[in-house]
Write a structure and sequence with these properties.
This protein is α+β, with helices and mostly antiparallel strands. It folds into 5 domains: 179 residues, Rossmann fold, CATH 3.40.50; 85 residues, Translation factors (Elongation Factor Tu (Ef-tu), domain 3), CATH 2.40.30.10; 72 residues, Alpha-Beta Plaits, CATH 3.30.70; 107 residues, Alpha-Beta Plaits; 113 residues, 2-Layer Sandwich (Alpha-Beta Plaits). The chain is 26% helix and 33% strand. It has 13 helices and 32 strands. The strands form 6 sheets. An 8-stranded antiparallel sheet has the order 11-10-16-7-8-15-12-13. Strands 2-3-1-4-5-6 form a 6-stranded mixed sheet. Strands 22, 23, 24, 25, 26 and 27 form a 6-stranded antiparallel sheet that branches. The two termini are 57 Å apart. The relative contact order is 0.08.
């Protein structure tokens, strides 16, 4: 098919607005899948994707379509993830396209991620085709959605197509709009091979399968190629397209989207956003926009049964093969034994990895509370990156600690503005400005520390707005703050698993809360055990686990009081000696209970 008859497009939308259902209908209408292969959420291959109704990995597929005037076209669709954690993957998928179908739910209207995705698409210079989906719903409000498209997204309402992916309404019109509105790929200026690697997966038998969009030149089997970010050299074994299963082809030319296999052993060797070029006639410069993916959230993952460490090591290694954004390194904790310090793109990414470990590899794991990367400026003007509170240097050598900040967009109904503002202030956030979307809803632009929104911020927005609120965020650099390391001491010994970096104003309350929780779960000893929360050398909270009392005077019946005193003094000396040499073994269940409350 000539480059003029090729169309590369993706589907962008807020979570649960019908991206994957629409892609199913497009596959059916173009005859890409047969009746016997038909199933819901065809492009979501993972059980987790199906259950949660979210897309975790991008899925490209090639379709052939004959338009109403009888012309044949080659359509390359890339089904992208919608969640903020995968924003870089989305931006690379958008860079492989010339246009995007923007899906808006007819009942819910424009949401926070719709706005964020539109910004990404405009940044890549894509042609937007708006589609109002779910028009068959009884509570669909088309006039309101038309207004929101014009007022919030600056898209003329008359451009919007009306459809229902579930009922199959408007599918033909969408395909015609893709053909006529989305431009064909630009003709290459030369024949030098330039291809954008926008994703990759690991196949147990064939190694890494890289997804590629060819911008110029040709790519075919037995060709010697190299990756421009790390100058790795490979020989292509197979190229092909997705229909949606892999189908080998003689080659891919400019404008095509497909895959290549080249004996690459792990996904760590191939980076998303990299440029592939020919070894003998390489491109002078890489395609724009490549950046290394850096994890934003860190958490320790340990096996509940310490004998399962090798099993966990194997499971994490296999997950890493399929997910290049997930990083890990071994670490050991006095309390939890051997485990791994893992880095994730965000909270959803962390949740998915933990769920896959439990489900696909049958692992019983415990995860420490999530933390972020802090920048620590020492008095010698050295800049350290700290992802684990245990690695924080001594307070005397710290000049300042900077925490990561995010720019958040919170969409909520008008009546909940006060509660949401209160929640933002509680999380140490600052309001930038508010924007009225329509008569019912408002968008709040604010800045928040990333570590404050890690655990329960999204859940609280949902509960305050009774499910009508939504949130999206983007990273906005680092800012200095009054942060301190909070340690928990049991019998004078610090317990590393409970250490955390908190804001100084919150440290006292957090220390009291953790000490009280730990008092409930630590078993009694024969002597009193002190549980203390400390910042540096200063104790800010204390709880005591009372001693088990053995009645040593029970055998004294009558006689002089000095006999009883003598026995009590002897017991007192014994307890003193026991306390000085005794070690408290905190049971595993205690850690699990306290980490759950965090």
């Amino acid at each position: 098919m000539s480059i003029e008859r090729t169309r590369n497009f993706c589907i962008i939308a807020h979570i649960d607005h019908g991206k994957t259902t629409l892609s199913d209908r497009l596959l059916e209408r173009t005859g890409t899948i047969h009746e016997r292969d038909r199933q819901d959420q065809l492009l979501d291959s993972m059980d987790l994707e199906r259950e949660r109704g979210i897309t975790i990995k991008a899925h490209p597929v090639t379709m052939r379509y004959r338009s109403k005037v009888g012309e044949s076209y080659l359509l390359n669709l890339i089904d992208t993830p919608g969640h903020v954690d995968f924003a870089y993957e989305v931006s690379r998928s958008l860079a492989a396209c010339e246009g995007a179908l923007l899906i808006v739910d007819a009942a819910q209207g424009v949401e926070a991620q719709t706005v964020a995705n539109i910004h990404l698409a405009h940044k890549q210079g894509l042609t937007i085709v708006p589609v109002i989906n779910k028009i068959d719903l009884p509570n669909a409000d088309l006039p309101a959605v038309h207004r929101q498209l014009e007022e919030i997204l600056q898209i003329p309402a008359e451009e919007a197509l009306e459809a229902s992916a579930k009922m199959g309404i408007g599918i033909e019109e969408i395909l015609e709009a893709v053909v006529h509105r989305i431009p064909a790929p630009q003709k290459p200026v030369d024949d030098t091979l330039r291809g954008l690697v926008f994703d990759s997966v690991f196949d147990i038998y064939r190694g890494v399968v890289a997804y590629v969009r060819v911008f110029s030149g040709n790519i075919k089997a037995d060709q010697a190629v190299k990756l421009m970010s790390n100058d790795s050299r490979y020989e292509i074994k197979e190229v092909g397209v997705f229909t949606p299963k892999m189908l080998a082809q003689a080659g891919l030319k400019a404008g095509d989207v497909g895959y290549f296999i080249a004996n690459i052993k792990t996904t760590a060797d191939i980076k998303i956003g990299d440029t592939i070029t020919d070894q003998r006639n390489p491109a002078r410069e890489a395609l724009p926009g490549f950046q290394e993916i850096h994890p934003m959230v860190f958490s320790g993952i340990y096996p509940i049964n310490t004998a399962d460490f090798e099993h966990l090591k194997t499971a994490i290694g296999k997950l890493r093969l399929n997910d290049s954004a997930f990083v890990y390194q071994p670490e050991s904790s006095v309390a939890l034994g051997f485990g791994f310090r893992c880095g994730f793109l965000g909270l959803l990414h962390m949740e998915i990895i933990q769920e896959r470990l439990r489900r696909e590899y049958d692992m019983d794991i415990i995860a420490t509370s999530p933390s972020v990367i802090y920048e620590v400026l020492t008095t010698r003007k050295e800049l350290l990156l700290v992802d684990n509170p245990a690695h924080l240097p001594d307070p005397s050598v710290i000049d300042e600690i900077r925490e990561p900040i995010v720019k958040a967009y919170v969409l909520c109904p008008n009546e909940n503005i006060g509660d949401i503002l209160q929640l933002i202030l509680e999380k140490r956030g600052t309001m930038d400005h508010t924007e009225s979307l329509d008569t019912r809803r408002v968008m709040l632009h604010c800045e928040l520390p990333l570590n404050e929104i890690l655990v329960d911020f999204n859940d609280k927005i949902k509960s305050v707005t009774r499910g009508y609120g939504s949130m999206d965020y983007e990273h906005a650099g680092y800012r200095a703050a009054k942060l301190v390391k909070l340690d928990l001491l049991v019998n004078g010994e610090p317990v590393d698993a409970f250490s955390m970096i908190v804001h100084r104003d919150r440290a006292d309350a957090r220390g009291r809360q953790l000490a009280a929780k730990l008092k409930e779960v630590i078993p009694q000893q024969l002597y009193q055990v002190a549980i203390q929360a400390a910042i540096g050398g200063k104790i800010i909270a204390r709880e005591s686990v009372s001693a088990l009392r053995k009645n040593v005077t029970a055998k004294c019946y009558g006689g002089d009081i000095t006999r009883k005193r003598k026995l009590l003094e002897k017991q007192k000396e014994g307890k003193k000696r026991m306390k000085s040499i005794g070690k408290i073994n905190i049971p595993q269940e205690a850690f699990i209970q306290v980490l759950k409350t965090q």
